[in-house]
Amino acid sequence: MEANTQNLAHQAPFPSDRWWVAGFGWELKDQPLARTLLDVPLVLFRTPDGQVAALEDRCCHKELPLSLGAIEPRGLRCGYHGLLFDCQGTCVEIPGQEAIPAKARVRSYELRERDQVLWLWHGSTPDSRPDSEPPAYPFHTDPAFRFGGDMVHYDAPYQLVHDNLLDLSHLGYVHVHTIGGNPGLHMNAQMKVTQDGEVVKVVRHMPGSEAPPTYAQAWPFRGRIDRWQEIEFHLSHLRIWTGAVDEGDAPLDDPQRGGFHMRGFHGVTPETHASCHYFWTISTNPKSNVEEVTRIVVDQTARTFLEDKEIVESQWRNQQRFGFRPQMDIHVDAGPNRARRVIRQLVG
Amino acid sequence: MEANTQNLAHQAPFPSDRWWVAGFGWELKDQPLARTLLDVPLVLFRTPDGQVAALEDRCCHKELPLSLGAIEPRGLRCGYHGLLFDCQGTCVEIPGQEAIPAKARVRSYELRERDQVLWLWHGSTPDSRPDSEPPAYPFHTDPAFRFGGDMVHYDAPYQLVHDNLLDLSHLGYVHVHTIGGNPGLHMNAQMKVTQDGEVVKVVRHMPGSEAPPTYAQAWPFRGRIDRWQEIEFHLSHLRIWTGAVDEGDAPLDDPQRGGFHMRGFHGVTPETHASCHYFWTISTNPKSNVEEVTRIVVDQTARTFLEDKEIVESQWRNQQRFGFRPQMDIHVDAGPNRARRVIRQLVG
Amino acid sequence: MEANTQNLAHQAPFPSDRWWVAGFGWELKDQPLARTLLDVPLVLFRTPDGQVAALEDRCCHKELPLSLGAIEPRGLRCGYHGLLFDCQGTCVEIPGQEAIPAKARVRSYELRERDQVLWLWHGSTPDSRPDSEPPAYPFHTDPAFRFGGDMVHYDAPYQLVHDNLLDLSHLGYVHVHTIGGNPGLHMNAQMKVTQDGEVVKVVRHMPGSEAPPTYAQAWPFRGRIDRWQEIEFHLSHLRIWTGAVDEGDAPLDDPQRGGFHMRGFHGVTPETHASCHYFWTISTNPKSNVEEVTRIVVDQTARTFLEDKEIVESQWRNQQRFGFRPQMDIHVDAGPNRARRVIRQLVG
């Protein structure tokens, strides 16, 4: 049992020198995108030749957000007096002025695109450079899977979203209309929490479960089902593998198990200490009616996440309203608490 | 002449160890109700067997407002992980966990229902228990009267609503379209202010008055009327008896006088130091067309109170904007000032 | 190159003992008008006999804004209890009370109307009285010109609006759909900045320019045009004379030059340290289709100023968001910086 340490008066920094999710590749089209990540207001954009870039969202002249400007082949042009910045933040043109001062530049950040995910390097110092490639996410390119996704903005600290994702026992109360199921089964499911370095795993098996609405619509189950939920917490994102087979059809921990799969990618990136962006995709393996089943799974997942948003934002407002009083832990908090410990040790 | 003592920087507590109005019985149906009273965020609810209860609106586990939960026969179940609390705030079930820790509880408050009014005991300490029954209000059950009412939320401190109700001279300026009348008559009416313990009475007689619109629509007056306004300030609520007889028909202070009666119940309860709830009913004695006259009286009263809300909230915004400068009293402030003194002495 | 000195934590007062624009004469009809000017919440009104007046917007009794009251021949009557104040702020009637205390008064301010502009005297002390007539503005009465105008509220400090008006090089980026034109020409235009006491002048000539949309719609130009922009900064308002002749038709600095004229009056008055009112008119000299051309010029000017509002408010939000970091000047900032220096010396 631990006290809630989220009191904003004692803010820890965000874990640094690592990749965080900045968005999805499809978000960068012909207009620049304003997005604050890890307390830094950024403009993200893609040049006509396909390169992605991230700059501080502030012209060094009169401070207009560069996200109000226009993309050009050489970079981004400010919408007030036309200063042009390249992808490294260097001013390469001041209209009407020959000399460009050395300080005519804005800060740039490493932005990479991999498997349709945009990754931002968050350095502990301005000189910090990536020491690795950003993580791969193969299900965005696996032909056996279809996926869809979206972004949800949370007026709540990012760790409350971690808590929510690492403890799926709430499905029986919050998500009864989509991916829920019988509450008792959820709360009584065997739960195994393990840790490997910074990675926390929570595995829950729910044999003999009723098929919740989304499952029943997406897969031709015969009757009762054996469900699994495997949550893998990485600091920058969670991978949540859920699914089910017909009751008794396969061992639940068989890596080759068939059945219905929903594989979720969940990038949770702080916007500020009291708000965050939640970038999610859900991949599934439709047996037939591929388009329709994919649509059902994606739409109902989207609906489910709006239910979570309502709960978590209400929770956060209430924590503030009651002055961050201590909370009381129960059995389902083992996973979330492990993840919080990982972060606490990193930002010490 | 006294300076305005409402500066929020010097907040007095609210008078305690007494009953305050928490709402009306008909507000508690099959959903829990979130309401902050006297700076305490509460959830009010009625169990299927009719019992009313008030708990702190915060689950002791993850702090979700309990008002987002569901009513069950045994109490209120949290909408996040399903903890169930009884009407005394004791957790009686933690789904999936056998042992229920002793600290699994939320604070409960005494809530009573009498004559369709909900009363909350506001104790000076957690151990404070009611020393009396809450007040009766017979006109909600008197067969000679019909009534209707509603709740108005004020973004203004509760004492500004007291001021407004204890000085009805504003009727001639603020409420000309309903219960107003000729301004000169209002401002020049004889006014008698008396006090008996914590109860302040303001009585005004306005013989030979024009019948204001609401009066003319509700009662078959022949012409000019003799009006009375009797205001009884109790700390938790005001009782305002107004009405009129045809000019010269009866002595205005005759307890047996006939004519048209509007009997108002006005529960004014702080939400915070800068906002309050105003719970009102108006009871009347229609001579004929019972339903229609009742509707006219209730609807026009509702309209009148929205006019008051606009005035009082503007007044409050202006007091803040001008930094709580001293005010200048005039003759009509005798009643309001007496009531302020009662409260000042209680919270001294 | 100078650091941004707008940090709200170090606010300078506003230049005082001078006239500021309070609005336009046509705004004062039969209802009082609430307007905060130079941090003072005021009510402006016109009595039935045509006199204009400005009072503190707070009744000295219960602090209701007087702007919620009603205009009468003798002055303004409060909407709560009917106190009547004359144009000097003296209470001349307390309904129902014979004696009017000496302190029954509200502060009054000098308000004058000249050429349809309302001018407010902002004194350094309560005793400060005007030492001059407010400025004339002849184009509001010149029969050769037609004009229209409006008020724009800015959620940004007034000096950011000065910056915007004193540097018209932004026309090529911000106003391409109305009064803009080719950006290169704007940024490379010769610019002459001069100063005479508190008055700063910026003159730019752009020979051989393309006629921007508004010009082409308002005047029968044959082809390319010679444009001028003459900006005269007075602390209380700017006068911006812009226009054009057919290329080569007249010397651009000839006071008798013909062609198309747009003469702008731009009163910029602080509301608070972080917001301001922008009162503008545009006068033009239509060659034919007088009504239609006037409408085009006024409507497109209005549209242009909404584009400026969006830019300047975004700029201000960004300056706050980035904590008022130093800015980098470029060539076009000479005029704005001169005006800032004038104000800095006055409020030093």
TrEMBL record, chains A, B, C:
Pfam families: Rieske (PF00355), VanA_C (PF19112). The keyword Oxidoreductase applies. Keywords: 2Fe-2S, Iron, Iron-sulfur, Metal-binding, Oxidoreductase. It comes from the Bacteria. Residues 19-120 form the Rieske domain. SUPFAM superfamilies: Bet v1-like, ISP domain. This is Rieske 2Fe-2S domain-containing protein. It comes from Ramlibacter agri.
